[in-house]
Amino acid sequence: MIFLYGPPGAGKSTVGRALAAALELPFWDADEAIEQRAGMVIPAIFAQEGEAGFRAREAAVIADFIAQGDGVAALGGGALLNAALRAQVEAAGAVLCLQAPLAVLLQRLAAAEGERPLLSTNLQERLPHLLAQRAAHYASFARQLDAAGEPDAVVWQAQIQLGRYRVRGMGAAYDALVRRGGLAQLGDLLRARGLRGPVALVSDENVAGFWAETAVASLQSAGYSTHTILMPPGEEHKTLQTVANFWEAFLAAGLERSSTAVALGGGVVGDLAGFAAAAYLRGVPWVVVPTSLLAMVDASLGGKTGADLPQGKNLIGAFYPPKLVLADPDVLSTLPEVELRSGLGEVVKHGIIGDPALFDLCARGWTAVSADWDELVRRATAVKIAVIVEDPYEQGRRAALNLGHTIGHAVELVSGFQLRHGEAVAIGTVLAAKLAARLGLADGGLVDEVTAVLHNLGLPTQIPAELDRGAIIQAVGVDKKRKGGKVKFALPRKIGDVQVGIDVPDWPQILM
C-alpha cells in the first residue's frame, strides 16, 4: 500500500489520483472520506468536534483504508503526527512525503482558502508557522518527493522512489517491483495477482544454492505446491536443448495451462524459462525474479524471451510478457563483484539513454554505486520501462536500448563468452560513442566521458587484442536487428539523448 503525506498544498490528492491510475490501483482521499462519513465539511467538523474529534475520525478512515488492501491513499497534512497511527501506517505500506517550496504551497492554497481549518485565516503568516512547526516531522520520512513540478513528472518520480511500475503495451499489463526483502514475499505477491499452482521454480544450480530455499518457503507458506527445476549455470547452456529439458520437467511436474512458472536467476534463466513458458501448452503464466544486477535492470524487463544459436545470441525466441517482475536488491549480496561490475555496463547504458542523474551516480565510481544498490536498480529499471512502454515491440524508440549491443553481442560471442555480457556492452558503448563522434552526432568529449566512467567502474573499454576482428564483423552481420539487410546502430548524441536506426556503411573501420 502507498500513502502520500506532506504539508497542505503539496498535491497529495492530485498526485495520488494520477499515481493510482498509473499503477491501476484504487485511490482514497482521507479528507474526502471523512466528509462523506460525517455528512459535513471539515471546517464544520472542527467547529463542532474540535481538532481531537477530527483526528479520531481521520484515524478510523485510515484504518479502513488499510483493511481494504493495496491502493494509494492521500493523507491529511497532520495525520501522522500521532505516533501510534504513524506506526500503523508504516507497517502497512510505504509513505511518500511530498514537499514543495513555500511560494508553490501558498499559490496552491490561495484558491482553497477557508477549506482548511488550521489555515483558515492569515494564510501568508500561518502557513510558514505551520511548516516550521512540522519541518522535523516531515523530514523524518525516508522517502521524500519534490512535488513542485508538473503532475505527470511528479508521478513518474514517485514510481522511481517507490520502485513500483506498471508495464503496458504488450498484452495484459503487469507490475515491475523493486523491493528489498521481496523474495520472502513472493508467495503472497503471486496470490495477490491471482496466479495459480502448481508452481515450477526454474533456476540454475548456483543461484538455487543461495535463494531457492527462501523462494520455495515463501511459495509454500502461501499454499502453493512447488517443483524446482535446475539447469547448469552459464551462457553456453542458453540453448534449445535446455528449453526442451524445461518442457519435459513441466510435464513431469503436472503443470497445466493455468499453472505458473517462476524464473529465479540471471538473464539466462529468465530468457530460457520465459521462452519455455511461452511455448508450453501454447503459453502458461510466468513470473521473473532476477538475481543478478544485469537481469534486474535489463534482461527481466520487456517480455523478450529466447535462446541462442551457434551463430549468435537470442536469434530465436518470443515476446511473452510475465505476470510480475520482482527485483529484490538484497539478493545481490551473494553476487561476485565481477558480476556486479558487469551489470553496471547496462546501468551506465541506461543513464546515457535517459537519465543523466543515473549516469552522474555511476560517475562517482564503484564505492558510491555499491553503497546503495536499491537506488541504482530503481533508477535503471525506470529508464528501461519508460522506453518499452513507449515502444513495446521494438518498432522505433525501443531500439535505443540496443546502444552498445550491436557490436557488444558480437564481441561477447567471438570471445566464447569469456567476456561477460555487461563487459561486452561496455566495449560496444564506447565504440558507439566513437561512431557518433565520427559522424558528427557527438563531440570527442562524450567519448572521453563515457570511457572514463566505464573504466572507473572496472569495465573494459577496448576490444581485447586477441579477438579476431573479422569474426566480430561477421557476427555483427547476422545481428537480429538488421533492417533491409543493413545493420542499424543506436548512437549517443549526449548523455540522455540517443538516436536510433543509423546506417553507418563503414562501421568496421572503428574496429581496426
Characterise the protein shown here.
It is a single chain. With 512 residues, the chain is an alpha/beta fold. The chain folds into three domains: 158 residues, 3-Layer(aba) Sandwich (Rossmann fold); 172 residues, Rossmann fold, CATH 3.40.50.1970; 171 residues, Dehydroquinate synthase-like, alpha domain, CATH 1.20.1090. It contains 20 helices and 16 strands. Helix 1 packs across helix 7 and helix 12 runs parallel beside helix 16. The radius of gyration is 25 Å and the shape is globular.
Remind me, CATH topology of the largest domain?
A: Rossmann fold
Percent helix: 40-55%
The helix-and-strand class reads alpha/beta
Architecture of the largest domain, according to CATH? 3-Layer(aba) Sandwich
Envelope shape: globular
How many helices? The count is 20
Calculate Rg over CA atoms.
25 Å
Give the terminus-to-terminus CA distance. 55 Å
Average pLDDT confidence is: 93
> Within the largest sheet, what's the order of strands?
6-7-14-11-10-8-9
What is the gist of this entry?
The protein has helices at 12-23, 30-38, 42-68, 83-92, 102-110, 123-139, 151-162, 186-192, 205-221, 240-252, 267-279, 293-299, 337-354, 356-363, 366-370, 373-390, 405-414, 421-439, 444-456, 469-477, and strands at 2-5, 27-29, 72-74, 94-99, 143-146, 164-167, 174-178, 199-204, 226-231, 260-265, 286-290, 304-309, 312-319, 324-327, 488-494, 497-503.
Question: Can you lay out the helices and strands and say which pair or pack?
Answer:
Elements: E1 2-5, H1 12-23, E2 27-29, H2 30-38, H3 42-68, E3 72-74, H4 83-92, E4 94-99, H5 102-110, H6 123-139, E5 143-146, H7 151-162, E6 164-167, E7 174-178, H8 186-192, E8 199-204, H9 205-221, E9 226-231, H10 240-252, E10 260-265, H11 267-279, E11 286-290, H12 293-299, E12 304-309, E13 312-319, E14 324-327, H13 337-354, H14 356-363, H15 366-370, H16 373-390, H17 405-414, H18 421-439, H19 444-456, H20 469-477, E15 488-494, E16 497-503
Parallel strand pairs: 1-3, 1-4, 2-3, 4-5, 7-14, 8-9, 8-10, 10-11, 11-14
Antiparallel strand pairs: 6-7, 12-13, 15-16
Helix pairs in contact: 1-7, 2-3, 3-4, 5-6, 7-16, 8-9, 10-11, 11-12, 12-13, 12-16, 13-14, 13-16, 13-18, 17-18, 17-20, 18-19
